[in-house]
TrEMBL record:
Gene Ontology MF term list: oxidoreductase activity, acting on NAD(P)H
InterPro entries: ADH-like_C (IPR013149), ADH-like_N (IPR013154), ER (IPR020843), GroES-like_sf (IPR011032), NAD(P)-bd_dom_sf (IPR036291), Trans-enoyl_RdTase-like (IPR047122)
SMART domains to which the protein is assigned, alphabetical: PKS_ER
Descriptive protein name: Enoyl reductase (ER) domain-containing protein
Pfam families: ADH_N (PF08240), ADH_zinc_N (PF00107)
Amino acid sequence: MSHVACILPFERAPIYIGPRKTPVPTPNELLIKVISAAINPVDAEIRFKGGWIHEYPNVLGNDIAGVVERVGSAVTQFQAGDRVFFQGTFDDPNRNGFQEYCIVPAKFAARIPANILEDEACTIPVALMAGIVGLFHFTGLGIPPPLHGPTAPTDMILIMGGPSQLGQRAIQLARIAGFRCILTTSSLRHVPLLKRLGATHIFDRSASDLEAQIRAVVHDDLVYAYDAISMPDTQALAYSLLSDTHPGKLAVVLEAPEDRTGIPTKPEGTEWNVIYGSIDLWPELGVPMWSRLSTWLETGAITPAKVTLLEGGLNDVARGLKMLWNGEVSAEKLVVRPWDD
């Protein structure tokens, strides 16, 4: 059996539409008919810049929603016809979403609740897992995961880049964890969105006195910061805003700058941590958090991103990658349906 896929033949090559052998699920896996897949900035980075992938040909698309087509012999929690969503991995092209069928380990899948569409569900996994690792894993901020209620050790957290997909999910996770003062940076046109998500203080990222504005709120009390943008300037600002008298933690999603000239020295024990938001890498955290996800979606504690549907199916993946690479997407997710023409 074969299916249609969007194939990246080698590093930085144009993608093309072609056949792939449909994988057979192992005893603990599910075969998924992919209904919707979202395009992420990392997909565009791989296509135009390279990196991340070590074997070719490959398939991109880590944000996936679909219907269970077949269950492995050892799977008991799902059956054919269930709607699920999950994070793919660049280590295995059989597990990614820009194709008609893929597989997923059953423990990494979550049911899509009735109030959520597949187009919406596929906007969640990658950004949410980055937030889960960034806030609740020891490689990030190390806050206890809120599996059974609020766990925030303090009242305050700073999230740089609130309108980004990573920023939006981090704000919602911070609210679930019980932070009462959630500060974020943004262009002012996104203020209504960020307030709905749970941000309590929103600062104009282009303000000339941005650091002073944030400092006026946090004083010397900020010990948790998460940078969803992670450019050298945003990392430097977030680190500078951490307490000067108490050890704090900054979690970032891209490499920390080697040159830290001009960045103030912080107390011993202050951390500047680069995280990798992969459920495959950190299943001990990801699996129990994923088990809460359907409930959080049903209650609105986690909400999907704004969807922009590219109606050409897999034929529109190349256009979506170019849009992201050119910076044409803000506070929304581009979504394709692999079965559309």
